Amino acid sequence: MAWEKNKPVGTDLLTNSHAQIRANWAALELGWLDLIANGTRTGGATFTIAGDFTAVIQAGDKIKLTDTTVKDSIILITPTFGAGVTTITLRDSILVGNPSVICFSKFQNPQGTNSQMAGWEAVTETWAYDSATTITVPTDATTKYSAGMKIKITQATGGTKYFNITIVAATLLTVASPNGAVVNNEAISNPCFSMMSQPFGYPPTKWDSGWFAVASSTSYTKNHNLGVIPSKILNFWSDQANGSGYQTLAQVVTRENVGQDGGTNVTSVTTTQVTIHTCDAGTKFTSFYIDTAGGLGASMTGYCRIICEV
Known about the structure:
By secondary structure, the protein is mainly beta. It folds into three domains: about 15-105, Elongation Factor Tu (Ef-tu), domain 3 (Beta Barrel), CATH 2.40.30; about 120-195, Elongation Factor Tu (Ef-tu), domain 3, CATH 2.40.30; about 205-310, Sandwich (Immunoglobulin-like), CATH 2.60.40. It has one helix spanning about 20-30, and strands spanning about 35, 40-45, 45-50, 60-65, 70-80, 85-90, 100-105, 120, 130, 135, 150-155, 160-170, 170-175, 190-195, 205-210, 210-215, 220-225, 230-240, 245-250, 255, 260, 265-270, 275-280, 285-290, 295-300, 300-310.
């Protein structure tokens, strides 16, 4: 049941107006429920609210609040209950002012969190720097993580960083960045993991140029913007603009017996660009291919498609 702000726990929702009921259900769809009182800060990451919420909130719930510096923060909470007062300790946040808007959620991923729709799952344990490519985690990591998973962390240097787990040991994750980021020797906050191939925000690991026209004796430079030199580059050739006709991996071929030369290959690759060049020697074919009769065909024009993978 969703509660209108300033409606005490125990208030019958049915006594609310139709407009209030609609507002309550709208809030519930977003996964957030209002608490009834503003908070009073008692420490760097601790505040109190008036009322006994023993039957309402528990450790592991999420809190969203606004104070003078933290806007719509979403943090796991550890509540303690006293006579008419509930104390809440935030995770990964330092308050400056008194919270003025307080909502809580028992949803695993209410709106605004690293939601499953976005592909990220928040980690509730502490991660620490070990080296530029390794992170120390609580044991036993082999029961929770595996090679191929994606992770996301935040550090003072570089902000949000993304990595792919390559090796998992009991207390150590070895990681590789898709865009050249490193783990700095400083605190790690907001760690998340994902089993999706492309969770929200994760830098692209694959780029596709699409088909583009080529002619002999010409260079073509395309921007892949992957941030690293691709580990795999595939260069396809076709005689049709959409690749529906003859299609083959572009390659360099010399037929000395008939004096024919042709092909297309990569001539340069950087962290942001890839360049191909078509043949400018001999007969200057852009590619050879096997035709429908099983014979060898060749063309001085055509279309290329480059695929780069990290």
